[in-house]
Amino acid sequence: MEASQTYHIYNHANGSENLFREEDNYHFFLHQYNKHLADVVDTYAYCLMPNHFHFLIRVKASEELKDLTLQSETFPKFRTLEKLESAQYPQFVSKQFSNLFSSYTQAFNKKYDRKGSLFMKNFNRKPIESIEQWQETFLYIHLNPIKHKYYKKIEEWKWSSWHAYKHLDSPSLLARSKAITYFDNLENLLYCSDEKMHKIMNMNLE
What we know:
Number of strands: 4
Structural class: alpha+beta
Radius of gyration: 18 Å
Order of helices and strands: EHEEHHEHHHHH
Oligomer: single chain
Distance between the termini: 39 Å
């Protein structure tokens, strides 16, 4: 995963299980996400569904990554280094996602007395190459509960970043200001979302 590159990150439960069985699972996953990735990526959008998830993120710039001081629990291979070298960025960022999935799986398995992998082995990372693709991905992520027919209104699904955009006065770790600029302003973001939502709902009715 390259520095300064934006990605659509998504993954699915391994098999027919759910990734999230109860509210505490969602809270813990987001806590672990912030722990392992808040200093490594800018997060624009996310949606956690019972058996899969989506994130729209941008890997931080080289200047930011090279100043990361590695903690012992972060990346054992580089414990003796004080700073990252540019050639190590892709492996480091990917490893941080792996650390997230591993830590969550271990806690999940312990809580529910299960064994084995929880996530699909290789998480998907799709580069975002245009503003149009960025906009479509942002809307797709937030409208995922509508697509899967969980709810008819985007704000009814609790486990997405949509609420942070509806309530800009609330604290958030999301890169909201930058995300809004991709739609020019918040009003246009909300308008595009409504238009897309109606299209998806009409498709669901067909």
